[in-house]
Amino acid sequence: MPIGQASPVQPFKGLIRPPGGVCARGTWQPSRLCKNRGMELTWYGRTCIRLRGKDAVVVNDPYPAVVGPTGRGITGDVVTYSHPDDAPLAKKGTGKVSRDGGTTLPTSLESAFVLDGPGEYEVHDVLVTGVRTYRDAAKGAERGRQTAFVSEVDGLHVIHLGDIGHELTEEKLGDIGRVDIVCVPIGGALTATRAAAVVAQLDPRIVVPMAVCEEEADCDEALKKFLHEMGAEPTVQPKLVVTTASLPTDTTTVLLESRGKA
To answer: What is the CATH number of the domain that holds 241?
Structure first.
């Protein structure tokens, strides 16, 4: 049964955000204030990201093909889907589905509120903006439309670009607004150079690449090229803990291990 629509709220442009901070467990720790509990950002493979804040949890793109039909125990208050499931595991008519009917939710996330299209919403005290984008550079003519979601969690603005396939227009940049963290797909429709260009357009403090290739070897090569474009040599780590203490001054690339692997 499709899940209902959230109530739209007024645009939240112009919000004053305090300085943020980032702490990487096990590796990069630029500030003692990172010891304070903050938002946890975890990558589960492909475009699946979990943002665990103090008051709510947002899960982006938890497709059953990535996290399994049960969700492997992943829970959340808000679920966003950038596009309908490309590789559905469930048979049609079984389980709860997204509002557009294109994606079956993992059972562990059936109680979450689902967003899968453009709009401005407030759910569980989390502000979420969905911006119409495309999975190719031809306005969806080749691979279809999608939605990029900006979530404000614990005072930090995180954009999940889904499986975006193009650079952003000035109009889209205006719709997105300022962001602190960008989760960008690597190895899909975007080349390494274009992915780096999208990051430059958004000018975030932190970049989290999401490998989306079918073959691991292809992803390794695509990621290597992207890191070269970014001038980064990060160490793989299990997750980030993001606080409002000490965001890096320059754009910093953070490489996460996939927590969704069996």
So the answer is: 3.60.15.10
